[in-house]
Design a protein that fits this description.
By secondary structure, the chain is mainly alpha-helical. The chain has nine helices and no strands. About 0% of the residues have low confidence.
Length: about 325
């Protein structure tokens, strides 16, 4: 910011060039030093303010980056915990239980096979003793049972469970579409199968993941706040309108009352016989009819200045009529 000269400052304050030239050199020097000091101080303050603004912006960005990093770390920790919980609850524990069941089943199969073999051997020996079977006949050996190996923890589903999963998937799809459209008025931007895959990757229930991704809670809060504000605004507007109507009615009543009193006093205290209307005079009816027809202005709806002007014009008109009658 360039520092103005003393002459420029004095000219801006209204002094002429002759008056400036007539000033003492010491005065000019002192003023020049003062101006330089003021402008330097202002420039230093401006520089300091700019530096503070830059630092504040840098701090704000650093804070936002730290908050984003903290959120990322928190999300990763939550995902890790959900993955561990899912492994223990859905893989390890069910797998161990299934392995124990499978072990018991295989042991029973082996026991049954051994008992069956012993029974066949006993029957074979009995038939030999009775002479029904030759002594050199081979002993019957039952074939080994072939078992299809099963991986421990492999899930099996009944038809009822499959139908429940299909129904749950359809319900979740409809829910996601309706909720997003309710809050935004638009269609869901992502495919349902993509959302289901993302929910599985994040180890979250489908509805919890969708609600978190599109911030349904925040949108719900914003909608409630907007509805509350609209309700309050409507009440305030109705109350203001009611107050305006009450105030207008009050002012109209006061204006009409004042106009009636003013007209009555003017009729009672007027010294001009031409402006006094005798009781029962038909002139009042004629005047009222002319006002309603728009042929004559209504004094009660006129400003005091316009009313005075109208009265003066009527007086001049009456005087002109009387002068014409006398002539």
């Amino acid at each position: 910011m360039p520092v103005p000269t003393v002459a420029e400052v004095l000219k801006q304050s209204g002094l002429s060039q002759e008056q400036i030239d007539a000033l003492d050199a010491k005065v000019l020097t002192g003023v020049n030093n003062y101006v330089s000091t003021v402008y330097n101080a202002a420039e230093q303050k401006e520089k300091s303010a700019s530096e503070l603004a830059v630092k504040a912006e840098a701090d704000r960005k650093a804070q936002e980056a730290a908050e984003a990093a903290a959120k990322t770390a928190l999300d990763a920790a939550e995902l890790q915990k959900r993955s561990v919980d899912e492994f223990w609850n859905n893989t390890y524990n069910p797998g161990i239980a299934a392995a124990e069941v499978e072990k018991t089943r295989l042991a029973k199969i082996a026991t049954d096979a051994a008992a069956e073999t012993a029974w066949y051997k006993a029957q074979h020996a009995s038939l030999k003793d009775l002479g029904f079977v030759p002594a050199d006949a081979p002993v019957f050996t039952p074939p080994a049972a072939v078992e299809t190996p099963k991986t421990p923890g492999t899930p099996t589903f009944t038809d009822e469970q499959i139908n429940q999963r299909i129904g749950s998937g359809l319900s979740n799809s409809v829910w996601a579409l309706q909720e997003y459209q309710k809050f935004t008025g638009q269609f869901l931007p992502d495919p349902i199968d993509q959302l289901a895959q993302e929910a599985t990757q994040q180890k979250l229930p489908f509805r919890d993941y969708v609600a978190r991704k599109y911030d349904f809670a925040g949108k719900q809060k914003a909608a409630q706040e907007a509805a509350a504000k609209a309700h309050d605004d409507s009440i305030r507007t109705a109350r203001d309108a009611e107050k305006d109507l009450e105030w207008k009615a009050k002012m109209d009543a006061q204006s009409n009352e004042f106009a009636a009193k003013e007209r009555k006093m003017a009729e009672q205290h007027s010294q001009n016989p031409d402006t006094i209307l005798p009781p029962g005079s038909a002139k009042f009816t004629e005047v009222r009819r002319a006002q309603q027809a728009g042929e004559r202005p209504d004094p009660t709806k006129m400003t005091p200045e316009a009313r005075i002007k109208l009265t003066q014009e009527n007086l001049r008109k009456r005087l002109d009529e009387r002068q014409q009658q006398v002539a």
